[in-house]
Amino acid sequence: MAQNNVGKDIREVLIADGVTTPIYIASEPSTPDAVITLYNTGGEAPNPKWLLDFTGLQARSRANAYETAYDNLQEVFDLLLGRPAFTQNTTRYTGILASSGIMDIGRDDNERRILVCNFRLIVEPALSTQHRKSL
Asked: Are 80 and 96 in contact (CB under 8 A)?
């Protein structure tokens, strides 16, 4: 099996950690007003010899009030940044680093506040290739 969908894995981790704001992957619904959406952003090129990937993830928070959007995203930021190595499904995550802080990117068409932050994840996918070796 190749590397898992990082957004799906991180969503499961955040829910297990107690995040109660609805979390979506790659597509933000029009309702409810307060949501977190995770987007896989690609990151850097994977290592061609070793099973080591450097992928990216953006967390986006939307809410009517700025404080709610900020607090929801701060919770995600605090739960992910510097998290010790863990395995989710078949993928080993050995590091989560922030590639940005929390940024306000304005309002949507319904005047809800939108904030984002970006992460870089160091990932050891399950062995599934002829040319890359496990660490």
From this structure: yes
Name the residue with higher pLDDT: 74 or 2.
74
Using the predicted structure, report yes or no on whether residue 11 has a pLDDT greater than 80.
yes
What's the pTM value of the predicted model, to 2 decimals? 0.91
For the chain, which domains are there? 6-124 (3.30.2000.10)
Query: Strand runs (DSSP E) across the chain, as ranges?
Result: 23-25, 35-40, 53-63, 86-88, 91-98, 103-107, 113-124
Helix (H, G, I), strand (E, B) or coil at 77: helix
Residue 93 and residue 91: Cα distance in Å, rounded?
A: 6
Q: How far apart are the first and last CA of the chain?
A: 16
Token pair listed for 20:
């109660």
Q: What is the pLDDT of residues 65-106, one digit of tens each?
A: 999 999 999 999 999 999 999 999 989 999 999 999 999 999
Question: Cα-flanking dihedrals φ and ψ of residue 6, to 5°?
Answer: -60, -45
Task: Say if residues 93 and 81 touch (Cβ distance below 8 Å).
Answer: no
Structure tokens at 135: 């660490």
